[in-house]
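Deviation from plan, reported transparently: arginine complex.
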Amino acid sequence: MKLLKVVASAVALCAVFAAQARTFDEIKKDGKILIATEGQFAPFNFFNGTTLTGFEVELAELVAKKMGVTIQWKTLGFDALLTGLRQDRWDLVIASHGITEERAKAVTFTQPHYCSGGMIIAMDPAIRSAKDLTGKVVAVQTGTSYLENVQKVSSIKEMKNFPTDVDARSALNSRRVDAWVTDRFVAKAVADKNPNAGFKLGEMLFIERIAAAVAKGNQSLAEGWSKALADTMADGSYTQLSKKYFNEDVRCN
Ligand code: ARG
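Because the crystal trials were delayed, the predicted structure below was used instead.
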């Protein structure tokens, strides 16, 4: 009897840990897809007052419509997003993740929804390229590809990590650091919005392809998403949205 109980609880425990990612069919049957993002990375995902919006949020709405499902959004710290996929706490993540080898070991990426890269921003116009970062203090958001790539610039004095990209920007704005590395479209938007703040846009440190991610091996969902995304790129709705945010088409080519 006792043994039976032990076996039963072991089986139950296994079931908890083996919670399977939902397939595209299961999600369609349910009619709702649970998508997680950060909400602190304008113009891609951010809050306008209490409303979650941005290029990625609006694009996801277009894609979901083509998939025949409605989105239930969740917003969390950037660091928690991919981890939650592994625990099947949500179906998909869209938060400007660059496709990296390291991440691809843990999650499955969809087709990319835009191409961009990490740009160097400073107050001092002399700081423009990787070599200008020699002996400088550089701000980046924790867990990002910016961190990874700034780390490779061995001549810097120090890299400072911040929980959000907004915090990294503030550090530069108040001159607690010499430079900030972020997405080039984020940098452009910040400079355009604050023309008198003195942000100087430098060179791109690296380029990357940005994609949504699903749980490792959830091919049906990755394909369902990528197919619907391709449809938005084919019917003009992607271009229209991209132009609204960036005045250009930001798809990879
Ligand atoms: N593109 C960078 C990366 O892949 C930064 C993404 C930051 N996203 C965000 N929602 N804060 O890591």
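Residues 2-17 form the longest helix (16 residues). We consider this an acceptable substitute for the interim report.
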